[in-house]
Amino acid sequence: MIMYNTIVTSKLGEEIVMSKGIDVFSTLTGFRYITEQIRNIENTDKKFFFGYEESLGYLASDFVRDKDALQSMVILAELTNFYIQQGKTITDVLEEIYQKYGYYKEETISYVFPGIEGITKIQNLMDFFRNTTFDNLKIIRKEDYLLQAVNNEKGKINLPISNVLKYYLEDESWFAIRPSGTEPKLKIYYSVKADSRDKCTEKLNKLKTVLENIINEVK
Fold first, then answer.
1. Which of 7, 49, 73, 77 reaches 20 to 30 Å from 218, CA-CA?
2. What domains can you pick out in the chain, each with its CATH number?
3. Pairing mode, if any, of strands 48-53 and 57-59?
4. pLDDT by position in tens, the chain (length 219)
């Protein structure tokens, strides 16, 4: 069975399903890429398990080929009822998950740069991020989906070409950067992992400060 998510989705879901022996495949941002993968496994021995993305899109059964809130509502209602019978709330269960797999915290920030100057600013930022080494961060892996490169070695990514950069840190945090395809925005996706909520917040704030300083400095 395969669970599908996107390259900017929290790793918590991956941790859970992989511990149950379920494979994970990450696509580019956009639910259409997830449904495309569902088509690819039709008439094969591979089975769809679940699909979701960071922007609150979920699909539990593939008879629908897009994110489906109705399916999600039914599942959430069933889960709520199941755990009520055990004297638990959904929040209680989420805390149990954090205790087992670690605390995760994510945030997506969109930086708006209007006009012709904004287009130049976004391009300059992407060029800077693509070529910087982030000496003040412990980067262990860089994925460049435009160049299809991992740690600057080309031909290592088997997804459609897209102007996206993703960086993995030594402490299991990561961040991804991409320009919006429809608006004058630069989007940065942050994800951190720690052994408490407070440490997650601290890590996230430090990471955001580093990136925001760069955004303010690059012209």
1. 7
2. 2-71 (3.40.120.10), 104-217 (3.30.310.50)
3. antiparallel
4. 999 999 999 999 999 999 999 999 999 999 999 999 999 999 999 999 999 999 889 999 999 989 999 999 999 999 999 999 999 999 999 999 999 999 999 999 999 999 999 999 999 999 999 999 898 899 999 999 999 999 999 999 999 999 999 999 999 999 999 999 889 999 999 999 999 999 999 999 999 999 999 999 987
* pTM of the full structure: 0.93
Strand partners, 168: 141, 174
Residue 80, CA distances (Å) to 83, 85, 86, 87 in order: 5, 9, 10, 10
Taking the C-alpha atoms of residue 36 and residue 79, their distance in angstroms, rounded to an integer, is 28
Residue 173 tokens, joined: 């945090």
